[in-house]
Each structure stands twice: as structure tokens, then as C-alpha cells.
Specification:
Order of helices and strands: HHHHHHHHH
Radius of gyration: 22 Å
Shape: elongated
Oligomer: single chain
Number of helices: 9
Length: 219
């Protein structure tokens, strides 16, 4: 009798239930990890702070770097998906700005950890792939935002510059929250709207020039 070859049954975190548990542990760990800098925490520290058995944590994550890659990727993908829902489905620049500011105000520690990891990737190659992956997704989302702001304009030549501008505003917003600046919400909102208006104005000027419209008279 010929035995039919079958794949071995999955176990642990390779099953759907295991992946769910792994995700839950990662979310608990990230909340604890984001309260400290990358360099100041070990896997044992994370387990203790999150009230997770160290052996159980090791079952799902081989080391701290594996845990960090999983958690940061999950957090940023959730963040990007939220923006995508607003931009693609609701097509609202105003709501996207509101969501960015709100995330900076309410998820400050988690975003701070992203910037900490991004800096760490300058020294540790093991984090470069996930940082590059996340930044690629953020830049793609920036291109989507630019298309929404000015549908008649090709966003690609401006995407990287816009990403740097938006990321800089977001980083400064995170920093201001951590430094206790009470005016951060208003200033961050104004700065983001300024980028939107500048991009729209530049597009309008470019189209006027292309059409050969006369420049306004100088006083």
C-alpha cells in the first residue's frame, strides 16, 4: 500500500492560533519596550515588564531582534493601513492630517521606538531590511497622499522630498510631545497643512506656466 505524502502538521506559532498568540505577546512586549530605549532592554527585561514567561517568549521569538522586527513591522503596518483607509476610501486630506497628529499625540512612545530602531539600523545591519521595508511603504503612502492633494500632477518626482518633509514634521511632533510642549497639536497641524498648500500652489503655478499664462504684474 502506497502512503500518500502529506505535509507535517504545524505546531506552536506556525498555526493560526499560534500566530494570534505570538501577535498578542508582541503587542504586550512592544508596550513595554517602547517605554525604554532599544539599548537599555533585554529580552528578559521585556518579558518581566510585560509579565510574560521568558521561556514562553523564547518559544515565539528566538531573540530580541526577532521580536523587535516583528513588533515594529506590525505597528507600522497597522499605522499605514489606518492612513490608507482614510486616504483611499474617504479621500480626505484633512482627515489624514488629523489622524497623523492624533497618532503622534496618543502613540508617542511607539513612534519614538520606531525612530530609535531606525537610528539603530545605521549600526546594526539586522534591522536594515525591516526599516527599508517600512520606509518604502511610507513613501508609497506619501505618493498616494500627493495624488489626492493634486490629482492632475505626477507625484513621483516629488515623493521623496515630500516624505522627508512630512517625516520631519512628524518627528518634531513626537519630540515636542515628549518635551511637554502644549502647543504641539496646533503647530503640527499647521505645518502639515502648509506642506499640502505648498504642493497645491506649486502644481497650479506649473500648469499656468505650461499653458503660457502671463505672470502677474510686479508692483
Amino acid at each position: 500500500m502506497t502512503r500518500t505524502k502529506t505535509d507535517p502538521p504545524q505546531s506552536g506559532h506556525k498555526t493560526a492560533k499560534g500566530l494570534q498568540r505570538k501577535t498578542e505577546l508582541a503587542d504586550q512586549a512592544l508596550r513595554s519596550l517602547s517605554a525604554q530605549s532599544y539599548a537599555r532592554t533585554s529580552l528578559r527585561d521585556i518579558a518581566a515588564a510585560a509579565d510574560i514567561n521568558l521561556g514562553r517568549l523564547h518559544y515565539y521569538f528566538g531573540d530580541k531582534s526577532e521580536l523587535i522586527v516583528f513588533t515594529v513591522r506590525r505597528f507600522k503596518q497597522t499605522f499605514i493601513a489606518r492612513l490608507a483607509e482614510i486616504i483611499v476610501e474617504r479621500r480626505s486630506v484633512e482627515e489624514a492630517i488629523e489622524a497623523l497628529v492624533e497618532s503622534a499625540m496618543t502613540s508617542t512612545a511607539l513612534h519614538r521606538f520606531w525612530y530609535d530602531l531606525r537610528n539603530q539600523a545605521l549600526f546594526e545591519p539586522k534591522y536594515r531590511d525591516v526599516v527599508s521595508e517600512i520606509e518604502h511603504e511610507l513613501k508609497a503612502m506619501t505618493g498616494t497622499v500627493l495624488r489626492l492633494i493634486d490629482p492632475a500632477r505626477d507625484p513621483e518626482p516629488f515623493r521623496d522630498l515630500a516624505y522627508v518633509a512630512l517625516d520631519g514634521i512628524f518627528f518634531q511632533g513626537i519630540q515636542a510631545v515628549l518635551f511637554g510642549d502644549d502647543s504641539v497639536r496646533e503647530r503640527m497641524t499647521q505645518a502639515l497643512f502648509a506642506v499640502v498648500m505648498a504642493y497645491r500652489a506649486a502644481g497650479t503655478t506649473a500648469r499656468q506656466d505650461a499653458a503660457g499664462d502671463p505672470l502677474p504684474a510686479q508692483n
